[in-house]
Amino acid sequence: MMKNKYLLILLVTLSANCLQAKIIEKSVVVNFETDKHELTAEHVVSIQAFINSISFSGDYELIIKGHTDQIGSVDYNIDLSERRAQSIKEHLIQLGADHAKLTSVFRGEFELLQRSFSSNALEANRRVEIYYKLYEFEDLSELENELRQKSITATTMQADDEKIVVGNNGTFIKIEPESFLTAEGNTYEGEVKLTLTEAINMSHFMEHSLATMADGELLESGGMYKLEATSAQGEALQLNPSSPLLVGMPSDNIQDGMSVFVSSDGTDWENTKAKPMAQNLLELPPRYPIERPQYRPILFKPDKSKEPKTPYEPRAPKLPKKPNAENYIPTIKWYHFYKKDALVQKENDRYQWAMDKYDLKMEKYHDRYEEFLAYEKSFPTKLNNFYCDHDDWKLSLVSQKTIFNEVTLPAHRAEWKKANIRKRKSYESAMDEWREKCDSVALAYIDKMEELGIPSEAQTSRYIFSQANLGWMNIDRFYKDDFMPKREIIVSSKSEEKDQNVMLYFSDLNSCIPLHMSNGEGKQKNIPKSEAVRVFAYKLEGKNVMYCEYDASKQDYIKLNYKPISFTDFRKRISEIGKA
Asked: Which residues have a Cβ under 8 Å from the Cβ of 74 and sit 6 or more positions away?
């Protein structure tokens, strides 16, 4: 076994079977010498051993994380960790890894394994971690279960204690003591197992196949969550109506007119008509209407009226063309015998007229040619004078700009300051008063939220409301489109209904509608024509993830054409939709 004080290789193999899904995870850690990022022979041998234990076929991903110790500046360590990760990445590509399936990140000194400055601790921190994950799904539910992992939080509590549950995506739920009942309606005592599912944005809606519909009408969602509670023995618990939950749910869609909706399955919602207690948008006093005066400097405009004109180059006049006598010989037909002399005389007169005109042109030509010779002789002097005059003119522009910057502009600014000093003082006084009112309102709001048990760090962009039952809950409002024309969207597919998931989603509304496919076709009526809508569909074909997406804003009929995509890229695309 090879040993080296600068090299530590850790190889961990984990096979997990989750709902029959086969997900294979392996990792290796490569340690580097101080300030080094190049791969040594020991590195190559150890990485090769890792590569021999995995497969570059199938749906896999490789994540490379570069790290450093805490010696050196932060910027230097970030750069060093990047170079280390890049060295590993390039070597993996040479060994056959798909570039598109590699992700490299660099943490610098921000994720230390040990904070000590001992040689062993520093050596452990100088590392690159390589994570390998292979996905093999048997059916669509396994794929969806993997997608949902990051939005599900599991925890426990004692029934007679108070607890604030914090979800992975920022939802806070305050639970009072003795809040749970058994199926018989008795107060439950003992350990409570809690499962919080968060669906804050569009990506979460799609991962959980949720719908934003109520009685066939479209909803604009501010976010959803589901809380489930079971006893230590796995029996479902109910919420005591006298001990409602206090919920603080983050949202990217804070709107007026929102209500609390509930659902048993997250697809068809019922309006409870309860309003959020707060939307975490402080109702601040209106800002002072007088705007702070802004100085708008005058622009320098040079005087170009005296700019010298470039002399034109001398060009010789064109020599007139002499009339050709042959062109004036008449053609006499046999039937013109009686006027032959008249025709000849007519052409002679025309020729004489042309020659007289030619003589006049030649006189003018000689005069112009004399002028040309004289101008050609004086042109060098004129051109030299132009260059001199142009240089003098450019110097005058510099002088103009100097006077503008040193005299005109300062005088203009001083005049502006004098004219606006009183207005500015009034504005600043009003703004100081407005800021004091805002601070007062904000402090009162924070005190109110803390009285309700919502921590101060959870009080931004969040709906605050009370909930008296478990299950799915949604903050929504009905989409108002009474006067908007509607349309029907039809989606066709060759796949069976159970083998695919097809959805319509409206990013601008934070709304999503799963389509129920029947006989290879899915229909949805009452789609607002004015709203941008997209079709998103995915399925499993064998063990391969298949996906397609279409802009349906201007299409009423869409035929699905699935294409293969890696699970990593598929998960990334869904995440991008949630951030749009």
From this structure: 108, 109
Buried-exposed string 70-93: b where 16+ CB fall within 10 A, e elsewhere: beeeeeebbbbbbbbbbbbbebbe
Alpha helices, DSSP H only, in 95-181? Answer: 119-125, 140-147
- Tell how strand 217-231 and strand 534-541 pair up: unpaired
- Dihedral sign, Cα of residue 164, residue 166, residue 167, residue 171: positive
Q: What is the pLDDT of residues 263-307, one digit of tens each?
A: 888 888 988 888 887 654 455 566 666 554 566 778 888 888 888
Q: 259 to each of 4, 216, 387, 466, 480, how far by Cα in Å?
A: 64, 17, 79, 11, 14
Q: What angle do CA 312, 313, 315 make, to 5 degrees?
A: 120
Say how far apart CA 229 and CA 154 lie, in whole Å: 10
pLDDT for 8 equals: 36
DSSP state at residue 258: -
Helices (H), 404-501: 409-451
Return the H-helix or E-strand segment holding 363.
helix 340-403
- Domain borders along the chain are 10-136, 149-283+451-458, 325-448, 482-579
Looking at the domain covering 482-579, what would its CATH class be?
mainly beta
At residue 64, the pLDDT reads: 94
What is residue 13's predicted lDDT score, i.e. its pLDDT? 39
255-273 burial, b at 16+ Cβ within 10 Å, e below that, comes to beebbbbbbeebeebebee
Tens of pLDDT, residue by residue over 36-80, are: 999 999 999 999 999 999 988 888 889 999 999 989 888 899 999
Weakly modelled stretches of the chain, pLDDT under 50: 1-20, 280-281, 292, 457-459
- What is the per-residue pLDDT for 20? 46
Backbone angles phi, psi at 359, to 5 degrees: -60, -40
DSSP string computed for 293-325? P---PPPP----TTPPPPPPPP-PPPPPPPPPG
Q: What is the pTM of this model?
A: 0.60
Give the residues across from 213 on adjacent strands: 218, 268
How far, in Å, are 154, 174, 260, 477 from residue 277 at the CA level?
27, 15, 11, 15
- CA 132 from centre of chain: 28
List pLDDT tens digits, range 165-175: 888 888 888 88
Q: Radius of gyration of the chain from Cα atoms?
A: 42
According to DSSP, residue 405 is labeled I
Domain 10-136 is found in CATH 3.30.1330.60: yes
Q: Is 223 left (phi over 0), alpha (psi -120 to 50) or beta?
A: left
